[in-house]
Every structure is written in C-alpha cells, then in structure tokens.
C-alpha cells in the first residue's frame, strides 16, 4: 500500500469483514467449544426433541406437534424423495428427513433473534455432512453396480462416438466423484456466509449512521440500512429454507445415481 | 506522482473480481427463470415438475456466484 493513503478516521464507516465469523471459545482452554459448536449441539438436541414429541406417540387423528411433524415429513417425501428415488424412497426417508430438518434448524438459527448465527456459515459443518453423503454414495455405488461397473457406468456412458470418450471420461470422473460433492458443501456454506455478511453490513450501516454517528445527511442512509436489514432478513429466511431443501434434494439425487446407473 | 503510475486502484480488488464473477450466473439465472416461466405458461399442469427443475438449475448456476464471493475473501491480499 502506498504511504499517501490517509489513515482511517475513527468515525469513518467500516464494513464488517470475515471477523464476524470468528468466535472466541466459550470455556477457557477448550478451543473447539465456541458459539457455532454450542449452537450445533443445541440444534441437534432440538431436532431430536421435536421429532420425539412429534412421532413418539402417533395418533390416528394428529394433533399439535404431530401435525407439524407430519407436514414436514410429507413435504420431504413428496417433494424430495419420491421424484428422485421412486420406489426406494421409503428406505431413504429417515436419512433425507434428518438431513433436511438438521440443515433447516442450523440455517434458521441465522434468523432467530439473539442467536443470529447460521451454523452452516462455518465450512466444517456442511463439509462433514457432504463427506458423509460422499462415503454413502461410494459404498452404495460399489455395492449395487460393482466396483468396476460403478466407475464404468459413470465414465463411459453408452451411445457416444468412440473418440469423444477421451474427453468425457476424465470430465465425468472428476465432476461426478469429486466436484459435485465439493459444491454440495460449498453451496450451503457460501449461501449462508454471504447472507449473514449482507445482513451484518446493512445492520452495521443502520447502527453507524443512526446510533453512533447521527448526522442530518447520514440519517436517511441509516434508515435505508435498517429497512434493508428487515427486508433481507425476510429474504434470508426463504433462502435458508430453500438451501435445506436443495441439500436434501441433491443428496437424494446422488443416492439415486449410485443405486441405478444413468440411462 | 511519478510518471510510471498512470492509474492507481485503491481499495479491495476482490469486489471487482466478484462483480465479474457474478455476470455469468446472473445471465444464467435469468435464462433459467425466463424459460421456466415460459414453460409454466405453456403447460400449467406440469407446474410441480417445472418448478423443481427450475430450482435445481437455479442452485447450480447460483453456486458459481457463491464460489465467487467466497474466493473474493479467500484470495484477499
């Protein structure tokens, strides 16, 4: 940087950076136990408790929690499992429903007031889910299509002119076995991170221009910041639910690809 | 100012990079939803199927823009 740059004045607006994703440990000496880790534990317990109350004593005419639970279950079955897995869907429903509900709760923490941190905006949490799906897909593919058949069906789809396999085989190999599983995690992580960052930016604008540096010219900008925070929080809730749906949908697609070779 | 410096860029180049990275996915998402709405208008009874494929295509295109915003932070000087 050149020395001609003037140093930042103390009352100048500074946009929030990646620092908002770094949390100090809650307990001294336990570096792993920070706010995201606590939220992940709370969210796991929450999912377990909610599903226990919803499905532990099923009644023929559902009431209360069972109504909500069955609504969520039906959504996952009709929108995610059945279109992709067909007659195998009942076998995979426990996994898909758990994935959907877990990711949904983790994401929605970003919009719950006083918590306001989407756990999935730390790459480790979506990465472990996607590694789990990857291991499952590799196991299922080798089990159902054979160790050679699994790779052959993906890399050498029938019905193409011979010379094009030089191009198709490596591209399909990398994209099917690695890239799509990496983007599976990165998509969830980056959406949550970008959304959290944008909301932090606009609320920082509101705080800076209305609370700490109130000026006649800055006040409209601060009001705009607060309005955008509210609007984007509503949009973020939609995105958080959509990403949970997409995560489970892609898991169902990958499982189906491993069970049956593409035609 | 020395003669060698003709134009100086201060601030974060990552934001320019992200702006460039958002062009492609922006066009792609526009095409996906435009064609999706057209398909629904032509065949309203296939709404469920079209919407699901539309969202699927949307997330694939969106992933590129999101990777862009993540890398703008990752490769910061």
Keywords:
heterodimer; A: mainly alpha; 7 helices; disordered N terminus; B: 77 residues; mainly alpha; 3 helices; 74% helix; elongated
Cα(first) to Cα(last) distance of chain A is 57 Å
Structural class of chain A: mainly alpha
**Biggest interface found:** A-B, 19 and 14 residues
| Total of helices of chain A | 7
SSE topology string of chain B: HHH
Q: Give the beta-strand count of chain B.
A: 0
What is the N-to-C order of secondary-structure elements of chain A (H for helix, E for strand)?
HHHHHHH
Share of residues in helices of chain B: over 70%
Distance between the termini of chain B: 24 Å
Sheet of most strands of chain A: none
What kind of assembly state do the chains in view correspond to? heterodimer
**Low-confidence runs of chain A (pLDDT<50, min 5 residues)?**
1-7
The helix fraction of chain A, in percent, is 55-70%
What is the overall pLDDT average of chain B?
Answer: 85
Which regions of chain B are unreliable across 5 or more consecutive residues at pLDDT < 50?
none
What does the main sheet of chain B amount to? Answer: none
Return the average pLDDT of chain A rounded to an integer.
89
Gyration radius from CA atoms of chain A, angstroms: 23 Å
Question: How much beta of chain B, percentage-wise?
Answer: under 5%
Computed over alpha carbons, the radius of gyration of chain B is 19 Å
Protein name (chain B): ATP synthase subunit c
Domain V-ATPase proteolipid subunit C-like (chain B): 16-73
Subcellular location (chain B): Cell membrane; Membrane
Keywords (chain B): ATP synthesis, Cell membrane, CF(0), Hydrogen ion transport, Ion transport, Lipid-binding, Membrane, Transmembrane, Transmembrane helix, Transport
């Amino acid at each position: 940087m050149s020395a001609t740059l003037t140093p930042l004045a103390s009352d100048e607006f500074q946009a929030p950076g990646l620092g908002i994703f770094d949390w100090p440990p809650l307990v001294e000496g336990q570096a792993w136990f920070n706010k995201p880790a606590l939220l992940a534990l709370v969210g796991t317990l929450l999912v377990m408790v909610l599903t226990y109350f919803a499905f532990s004593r099923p009644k023929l005419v559902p009431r209360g929690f069972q109504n909500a639970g069955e609504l969520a279950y039906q959504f996952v079955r009709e929108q995610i499992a059945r279109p992709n897995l067909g007659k195998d869907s009942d076998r995979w429903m426990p996994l898909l429903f758990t994935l959907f509900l877990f990711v949904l709760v983790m994401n929605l923490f970003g919009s719950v007031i006083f918590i306001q941190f989407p756990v999935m905006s730390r790459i480790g949490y979506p990465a472990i889910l996607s590694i789990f799906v990857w291991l499952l897909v590799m196991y299922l593919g080798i089990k159902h299509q054979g160790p050679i058949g699994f790779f052959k069906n993906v890399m050498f789809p029938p019905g193409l002119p011979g010379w094009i396999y030089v191009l198709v085989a490596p591209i399909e190999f990398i994209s099917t076995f690695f890239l799509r599983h990496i983007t599976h995690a990165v998509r969830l992580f980056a959406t949550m991170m970008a959304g959290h960052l944008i909301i932090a930016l606009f609320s920082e604008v509101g705080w800076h221009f209305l609370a700490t540096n109130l000026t006649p010219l800055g006040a409209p900008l601060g009001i705009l910041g607060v309005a955008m925070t509210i609007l984007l929080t509503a949009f973020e809730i939609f995105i958080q639910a959509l990403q949970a749906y997409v995560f489970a949908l892609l898991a169902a697609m990958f499982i189906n690809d491993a069970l049956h070779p593409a035609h | 100012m020395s003669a060698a410096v003709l134009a100086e860029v201060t601030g974060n180049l990552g934001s320019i990079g992200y702006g460039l990275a958002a062009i492609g996915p922006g066009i792609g998402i526009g095409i996906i939803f435009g064609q999706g709405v057209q398909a629904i208008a032509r065949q309203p009874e296939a709404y469920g199927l079209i919407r699901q494929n539309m969202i699927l295509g949307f997330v694939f295109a969106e992933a590129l823009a999101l990777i862009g915003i993540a890398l703008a932070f990752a490769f910061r000087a």
